Amino acid sequence: MSIEQPSAHSVGSGGGSGLSGDSGFSRSSGFSRGSGDSGFSRGSGFSRGSGLILLVNDRGALASVVRRCRPESELLMADTYLSAISELASRTASVEASEAVEAARPVEAVSVVEAVLVFVESTDEPLCEAVAGLREASGRGTKLILCCPAELESAVRLACASGADDYLICPLRLDELEAVLSDAPPSGHGVAEREDVSGGEDVSDGMVSRGPGGASEASGVTMGELSSLSEILQRLDAEPGWILQSLAELVRSAMCASWARVVVDGSVGESSGAAPVLPRGGVEKSSAGAVSPDGGGPVLSVSLSLGKGRFGSLLVGGPVNGRTYGPGDGSKLRHYGQLVGHLISASAMQRKWHDFAYVDELSGLPNRRFLLERGARILDRAHRADGLVTLLMLDIDDFKRYNDAYGHDAGDEIIRGCGALFKGNCREHDLVSRYGGDEFAALFWDKEPLRVPGSSHPTSVLPIIERCRQSLKNHRFDRLNLAVGTRLTISGGLASFPADAFTIEDLISRADEALLKAKRDGKNRIYLGGENGGPVMGG
To answer: Hey, which of 184-193, 298-307, 422-431 has the most confident mean pLDDT?
Structure first.
């Protein structure tokens, strides 16, 4: 499509625009153009790739701000993505052919406009495909900027990956638009001040969120970030709550933000500059839209995804230490979003393999391997802190008889039920595991020194064991048709550190000896091992 203009003619708003057909373009008023079929005048002061800005889908959201930002530039308007791509392709081909003939060189894709600004008012159309088409048609050197209302930010941010250089939130701010077009840091307050947004004509009250692109004062990686990242990598098999909290702390520090939040399937890890208080289990159930620690909403955010699947969000609050977010902060957060996504995925895989190695599939409890490794560490801690540790080995009385009489499904139900009862009646930090077959182990240890002078550790855990016996006595197993008054019973053996043994293997051996004696003496009883062994419960 050609544009016919006399030299130095001022293009008005009437029918003399020189644009014909139904291309969807209209010429804005008040801009001078030189002559030449390419649409650029060699002597007009415009250079290739500058002086012409294309606005796509503008609904009054862009033109007035762009005119204030670039009064020397000329504006083109395109009503649809397709018409914009068509016009860009036509202009690119025209300039390429003309310059190739003049310079006697191969045709090379060049930029024919300074910038393309696209107003995204809905996501009903295939936005990513449109962005990719605009990127290809505009040639190299053209800034491709997406502009959208705040509620469409997530979709527009994702669409940037298809070829856009950046995105802005409407209403536009003059200094932020200037920063995007010139690659310079914003001269105003930046994205840290997004409140008090006005819907009027004063664009200085608008707000902006930065996408990928540009350099940033926060783009460097510090030794502190590397140290935190190293610690996380070494503990990828840790509890999900610790992983999310540590990642939030890493991002908060890296972005110099007032707070950061990692949200994964409703689980939240949060850092607000102080030690975060997490609920029991380390994971807080919340939503990405929850109120932030400083009372405001997130200033920057990215989606966490792997492949085509989105599984969470990374959100940060405003900057601290008197700084503002610059053009590169959005890019840095996007890179951290990719890193956090991969680390969360790797952590989940680590825990999966950990479960294969250390968790009993039937009962869901830790297995013998975990008892041996974790028990050794607990004993080492007790040795250094002059602590006491007690091991209880439990065996279900007459399990084989029930298994043979009612079938293996009933036997599996007994194993699962007993494991849940034992775990539920012990303290949270105690280690309950399935040792093998119908035998379980419970390792009791104290996080703090004993508070009662002269108290004995084995005696202090007896109430816990009694709760286990009573729970089993009152529990009904669906697959067992037991006679009235008949209940499952257990036998057990106790051994303690340091009185009976100094290693976890020897502790298990002493407790097992006491368990076997309890079984021989009639079952349904708990015996204490060691030199002073004997019945302590039942019998």
So the answer is: 422-431
- The answer for residues whose C-beta is within 8 angstroms of residue 47's C-beta and 6 or more apart is none
Cβ-proximal residues to 308 (8 Å cutoff; 6+ apart), any chain: none
- What secondary structure does DSSP assign to 209-234, as a single string? ---S-S--TT-SPPHHHHHHHHHHHH
Distance CA 150, CA 168 (A): 9
Number of H helices, E strands in the chain: 13, 19
Neighbours of 338 (CB within 10 A): 15
Instruction: Say whether pTM exceeds 0.90.
Output: no
Which pLDDT tens digit goes with each residue over 214-251?
A: 333 444 567 778 888 888 888 888 889 999 999 999 99
Sheet architecture: strand order including 300-306: 284-285, 267-271, 260-264, 309-316, 300-306
The kind and range of the H/E element at 56 are: strand 52-56
* pLDDT value of position 448: 61
The two tokens of residue 415 are 């194993």
CB 305 within 8 A of CB 265: no
DSSP string of 262-276, one letter each residue: EEETTEEEEE-SS--
Contact at 8 Å (CB) between 285 and 321? Answer: no
Q: Which helix (H) or strand (E) holds 118?
A: strand 115-119
Structure token pair of residue 202: 């004063």
* Residue labelled with tokens 């840095």: 332
**Distance in Å from the first CA to the final CA of the chain:** 101
